Structures are given as structure tokens and as C-alpha cells.
Amino acid sequence: xLRNNNPHPSPKWALKYFIAGFHFLCPPYLTLWFGLALLxxxxxxxxxxxxxxxxxxxxxxxxYNAFTIAQSGADEHGAPWPLYFGAxxxxxxxxxxxxxxxxxxxxxxxxxxxxxxxxxxxxxxALLLGLLARRVAEDDRVGLATAFxxxxxxxxxxxxxxxxxVALYPLLLALFLLALRWISDRGHWSWSESVxxxxxxxxxxxSYSTGRLLAPLLALGLMFFIRRGAYRGILLTWGIxxxxxxxxxxxxxxxxxxxxxxxxxxxxxxxxxxxxxxIAHFVYYYARNLNPHQWLAxxxxxTRHHVPGMGSLLFPTFALAVLGAVLLLRRDxxxxxxxxxxxxxxxxxxxxxxxxxxxxxxxxxxxxxxxTLLAIPALQWLGEAEQGSRRRAxxxxxxxxxxxxxxxxxxxxxxxxxxxxxxFGFVACFDAATALPDKPIYIQPxxxxxxxxxxxxxxxxxxxxxxxxxxxxxxxxxxxGAVVIGEGAGYKCESCRVIKRQGDFIVYLSQ
Length: 511
Fold this sequence. Notes:
The chain has helices at residues 11-25, 28-45, 57-72, 94-107, 112-137, 140-152, 154-159, 169-186, 191-207, 211-220, 231-244, 246-254, 261-266, 275-289, 292-298, 315-331, 336-347, 366-383, 390-416, 426-434, 452-461, and strands at 85-87, 90-92, 441-444, 469-471, 483-487, 496-502, 505-510. With 511 residues, it is α/β, with parallel strands linked by helices. It has two domains: 111-418, no CATH class; 426-510. The protein has a five-stranded mixed sheet with strand order 4-3-5-7-6, with helices on one face. Helix 9 crosses helix 11 and helix 18 (366-383) runs antiparallel to helix 19. The longest helix has 27 residues, at 390-416. It is globular and about 80 Å long.
């Protein structure tokens, strides 16, 4: 017998031994979970550095306040460690801003870091919803299929592309549902478990504006889990959650109308309307927000939230959620988890239905989460069928359709995504202005006085000194020889020299 005297084994053999050892140490499904997690991570992060859209104005507001918190512990207006952040007529929620402040403190201001944080939040939400499905169904196949479907769903993917407060919401909601399932499986509620649920409910309340109503409605749904020995834990959860809401109540008392300013701008609830008229509007918008044709065929008409060409929800998710709801109502009518899932889906459109418009991707973000929850019993039921049965065939066709729809959406997103409205032209104009040496940049607001924050944020990213970017008062003329960024595609400046005109913005030297 010939011996291999080569003391250095080939890379092929080393790889073979590594794979064999990995399979020996890890169960087969753990290998699949690891592979799927890596695939989803690639899907959610590969395009983040190449996003050429720039920041939308609300994204810049979130990022710049995170920058000022990281630098000095105060917001853009100088308020130290605020609970809510004042921004052009509304107050932004704190969770994402403080999370980004930590990242900026470590890595400095950049376009990449905030987008990457939101993308990773979307990836983690898909993975946690898959793990939740695995725990509910006690089947790794159901968990893997759920995580894969969530990762491909336009509704989840597009929210993770935006540096908006809502980007954290699917992740926080998935954490809350996973904790609730774990506690309900144990059969009793300890004080530590009540604290955990209360903290997660508080995060749902403070992280996004619709959460101020949705989180209390979800807390009310804990009544479905009341049984002998559990009611004390639920009462304790409500009590701790109420204490955690005190900072919000104190802020609202000290700043009357601050937290409801955005609602007043977008809602039909006004003093001159009668209660009958308000209720009629609510029923109308609630029904429109639950219109499956809009979910499946069109999605949000706002191109900043959704690229046109297909719906925000995949057809297999909708079909499985309907089937899952039927199975829950017929077979597990007394199961508290199933009743809570239906309750969560039913209350999800309520906050969004208090405002004008329908199918708002951001305000309705809880809907796809609870539809994913309702789809779990259907996936479990179809997966339990025998090989060759119609149920198994239906499951295979649904998985194939998920892959096809997901691929079509990704193609549309990378084709039409750059055409979305993200303050096109500002970055080019700002770079042209900063290219002029030793001159401060003046921001001349037009009708919308809010976009000054774009210059503040991009100035921080470019490393400009604070005094290099100045804001003119509305109607005030700039100093002679100043570099000015103005707004308006048809803007005409008299006695000035135009440096660059791009999109809705113009850079010129005043005379």
C-alpha cells in the first residue's frame, strides 16, 4: 500500500474534515439555520453601502440628533438627554436615536452606519420570527420556512432600508412575542418574566408613534392568558408597564400637544366633527387598511416606502394566514396563544386608521408580523400531511411561489429603487458648496423650512465645523459673496452666480 508522505494535506481534505466535524458537533437543522441566517444576512446587507439615494429629510433628522447626542449628550436644540426629540413640527421617538448615538460614538458619523443598523434590525426580526415559528410549531421546517418568507417579504425588507424609527419595530415586536410564547409555555408568570414583558411593551411604546396606542392594546390582550395562578403575573405586568409609562405622561404634561402634533396634522379627528362622523371615518379607513387586494397588488402608494410594480405582501403569506386563522378558530378556539394572535392582527390597523390615507407601510408594520404568526398553524398542518398528498403538494407550490415572488420583488427593488423621492440633488449641491474653500455655507429655506437638517447632517458626515453651516431666517438675504444652497427646481436668483443646479436644489454665490 502506498503512503502519502506529504506532511501538508491538501485544502480539499482540510475542508472535508472541517465539514465532517461541523456535522458531528451540530444537528442537521442547526446547520440549515446557520446557512439560512448567513443567506438572509447577505440579502439584507449587500446593498447597504451602495445606496446612492442619499438621506431623506426624516432620516437626516434622526441621524443628526444621534450625532449631537454622541458628541455632547444634547439634541440639535441643546436639550440634554431628551426623552423625545423636537424636529420641524413634531417629536421623534428616542429608541433608534439613542441606539445610533452609540454607534456614532464608536465609529463616527457616516451614511453607512445608520443604514446598516436598520438593515441588521430587519435581518434579526426575520430570524427571530422564524425561531418563534419553530417554538410554536415545534418543527424546524416550519421555523426555517417562516424566516425565509419574512426575509423575502417586501413589507419587511423595505422598512429595513429606511433610517426611520419604525425600522426597529418588527424586531421589538418579534422579541415581545417570543418572550410571551416562552412565558406562556412555562405555565406560570414569575416577577422577572413580568418585568421582561413590561420592558418590551415599554420599548414598543417609546420606539414608534403608533406604539403609544398599539402597545397598550397588546397589553390588554394578555387577558387571554389569565388562568389559575397566572392572573397575578399579568396584573404585575400591567402595573410595571404603567410605571414605565410615567415618563411619557410627564413629558406630555410638560409639553402640551407635543406628542399629538403629528396626529393633529394627519388625522380627521377634529373638534368640529361629530362623533358619528369620526366613527364613520374610522370604520372606513379600518376597512381600507385591511384590504387584501391593496396588500397583494399595489402596496403603499408612497414610493419612498414601497417600490411600485407589486404588492407589499406575498400571496403565500396571505393564503397561509387565512388558512391559519380558520384552523385556530375551528380547532384551537380556547388556545390563549391563538386568540392573542387574532387579537393582535385585529388591533394592528387601529392606530393607522385614526389618520387620513390607507395602506401606509410604516403605520401598519404590525400587520405583516401578526399575519406571519397566523400562518404558522397552516404551515404546521400542511407539513404534517403524508408524502404525495394534496396538502404536501400545496405546500410545495406555496414555497415555490414565495421564491418566485421574492425574486421578482428584489429585481423591481434594485431596478426602481433609485427612482424613489429621497431629496434628489441635495448631496451633489452640498458637495459643490463645500468644494469652495474657506466659505461658510448658508441654507436658504423656501416653503419647507425643515430641510436645513440635511446640511447639518451632511456637514457632520463631511467633518465640517459646526459654524461652517449656517441657516438664514426666512426672507433674510444672504451676505454678499456667500455660498448659498437654495430650494426650488425653478429658483431664480437675481445678481448671483449659479454654481450648480441639481434636482430641487441650487447652489449659488450671492453678489
